[in-house]
């Protein structure tokens, strides 16, 4: 192992707008040996998440910025290849914050052991059975406080989190309208995932379609995109609506800075609340939620789709951009082909 | 009475930006006689409220727009001068939605009987002991869920609602920072009302001052102004903060439309919520709140300041603009000098 090369992608500069190749540095180093009480994981799957864009920015946020020169932060899945800790054995499959690299030397904290099978491929532990599923679950049920019979709207509805949110809402007995880009995504969420309706924001007027599809207003809006779509939904809230702020992917690369929701005073008109959350705050309940999600998956009541791209860590910068262009359907994962 | 003239101010056109004289029509008609089960009130005090600007706009909101040609909607106080209902007797003093006019013929619904005394002047029932006080009370305690020892920021802090919010927060055992315009207002809220600190947004950088004055962040922000000040406070929230949306006076006359809070994604960073409310939703608890406010007033634990302008209904358009120019301290009231 000491002879192997560990290829890595590091953040070389803070991006303005869409992160181009100039913000990345591709480096190699020897595969590390595990320190005392630590282990080495060979990364097989890198999770691509909109939140990554935020981690690249300077300034205070819920997580510290990735330092210039540091390996890019990323969730991932891999196999333990060396271990100096009783917590993990060589051959274990784990998920955690592994970074955009082929090998990571790490302490055991924050790693989760998972067991992929013939039915449950490894990438699913980065999707429905991982942070993505948890985000949908706690955002919709806890922050959104969804009740049976309510009307839910979710944006980024064909994305990783959005596609789970809509399905969870159906399981809870709600009416679900998904907002997505393009006819394929819209068909997928309605025909395959069981959403009640879809709005194609690329060709349809969102506010007009919401008026038709949700004449009594929107009880829970789960927002992954921000921008004009957030404003359109704010104009169609039901009384005492809950607006769950999960992301704002339409705004992350805006060179003029984030646009705020012009219609926020509708929170007053509809006595509504807008609330942000982080899935990490629910860590004590991940077990409970994971078991419930796995049960629904096994029963065929919920589907998980992963958009797997085969490549190397060097492909990461390009694959990341697919998220911001809305090219993925379901969870975007880079599966590493190792040398 | 039938010989008297009832002067009225009607909405003649929907304003763009700041409402100039061209949006008003000054009319006169005979003082009405009360219909069956109804009464006539002679208006002595007209309440000036930022919300009036919203009522002048077209489009769906929490209250229907004032129709073009209709008497301008206004809260007020007056004396019953004729009654065909057992609910009110001639000579009673009442508050309610009386309109910008000298006399109103109305049903008894929505009117409150009040009893001004030597200690409690009539205008106070449009301020601390009226809707203004209720708005502060329910917004801070219910929507804001303020707890002892927390840090509160209130904007429009020398205004009608803001000045009460800060005092209520002190009674509840919080630390209070008020944001107001100009040294006189800032001195007043600290020296007379007992706020812990004031920020003069006209001469100080709000975000910098908040950093100094609230190093651990803001637990409750009671917003009356919107715009840049809202953004500045969103950047300084504490974890699990509550942002109470009461008004957005800085934006009501913006010809380019409302500006949305660019920093709203801090709701996620700080796991915070932003929530709107309307005092009318708490009508069943007004009695309870009114008694508590009156008690604190009698004990000298809270002060009510009314900014009383003497004039006629024809002065209403000019007096209204004082609100938007930030010229009032405390509750702005037009006291009618009747012919």
From TrEMBL, chains A, B:
Positions of region (Disordered): 1-29
Database matches in InterPro entries: ADH-like_C, ADH_N_2, ER, GroES-like_sf, MDR_fam, NAD(P)-bd_dom_sf
Enoyl reductase (ER) domain residues: 17-334
Keyword field contains Cell membrane: no
Keywords annotated in UniProt: Oxidoreductase
Listed SMART domains: PKS_ER
One matching Pfam family: ADH_N_2
Gene3D superfamilies: Medium-chain alcohol dehydrogenases, catalytic domain (3.90.180.10), NAD(P)-binding Rossmann-like Domain (3.40.50.720)
Protein name: NADPH-dependent curcumin reductase CurA
């Amino acid at each position: 192992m000491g002879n192997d090369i560990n290829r890595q992608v590091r953040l070389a500069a803070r991006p303005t707008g869409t992160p181009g190749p100039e913000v990345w540095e591709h480096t190699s180093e020897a595969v590390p040996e595990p320190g005392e009480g630590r282990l080495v994981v060979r990364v097989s799957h890198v999770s691509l998440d909109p939140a990554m864009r935020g981690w690249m920015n300077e300034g205070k946020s819920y997580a510290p910025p990735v330092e210039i020169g540091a390996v890019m932060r990323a969730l991932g899945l891999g196999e333990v290849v060396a271990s100096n800790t009783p917590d993990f054995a060589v051959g274990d499959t784990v998920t955690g914050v592994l970074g955009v690299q082929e090998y990571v030397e790490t302490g055991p904290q924050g790693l989760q052991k998972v067991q992929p099978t013939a039915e449950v491929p490894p990438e699913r532990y980065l999707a429905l059975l991982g942070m993505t599923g948890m985000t949908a679950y706690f955002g919709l049920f806890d922050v959104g406080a969804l009740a049976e019979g309510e009307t839910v709207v979710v944006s980024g509805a064909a994305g990783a989190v959005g596609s789970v949110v809509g399905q969870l809402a159906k399981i809870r007995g709600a009416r679900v309208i998904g907002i997505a880009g393009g006819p394929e995504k819209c068909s997928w969420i309605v025909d395959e995932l069981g959403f009640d309706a879809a709005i194609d924001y690329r060709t349809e007027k969102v506010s007009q379609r919401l008026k038709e599809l949700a004449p009594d207003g929107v009880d829970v809006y789960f927002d992954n995109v921000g921008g004009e779509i957030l404003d359109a939904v704010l104009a169609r809230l039901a009384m005492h609506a809950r607006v769950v702020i999960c992301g704002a992917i339409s705004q992350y690369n805006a060179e003029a800075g984030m646009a705020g929701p012009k219609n926020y005073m509708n929170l007053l008109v509809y006595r509504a609340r807008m609330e942000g959350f982080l899935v990490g705050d629910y860590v004590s309940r991940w077990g409970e939620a994971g078991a419930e999600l796995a049960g629904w998956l096994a029963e065929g009541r919920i589907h998980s789709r992963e958009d797997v791209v085969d490549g190397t860590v060097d492909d990461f910068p390009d694959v990341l951009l697919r998220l911001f262009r809305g090219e993925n359907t379901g969870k975007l994962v880079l599966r590493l082909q190792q040398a």
